[in-house]
Specification:
This protein is mostly helical. It has one domain (5-122). Helices cover 68% and strands 6% of the residues. It is built from six helices and two strands, in the order H-E-E-H-H-H-H-H. Strands 1-2 form a two-stranded antiparallel ribbon. The longest helix is centred in the middle third of the chain and has 27 residues, at 62-88. The radius of gyration is 24 Å and the shape is rod-shaped.
Amino acid sequence: MAKTIFEELGGKYERQGDYLIPCIALPAEEKQPIGTWGQRHLDYLKQYRKVTYTNLLTSGRLNAYLADIDRQAQERFERLIEGMKQAQGITERLKEENALEWTGRLNNIRAYAREVIEREIIYI
């Protein structure tokens, strides 16, 4: 019996009943921690960018890609918050004088920064 292209490339088959099933495995990938930004982007890829998701998964680069997206998003998020805090004059003194106002203003800044990150990095 002649070898198939899969066998010529070093592939092996496994017999299950009367059928020969190719033994296929995804390439090994280094595990990196993925935070909330990376998880959100993963959900987006799975739902709206299936081809990109499949290509990254089968090439073994998905985890590294998501970790990089997560790192970029977190850095941008922190820079945006710090910049807006300075622009709006939110200081530790305000926190001491009026903690409720400080909390409300900081929550508004975080919500705005979250929207910017989602629009510019996560959902593209």
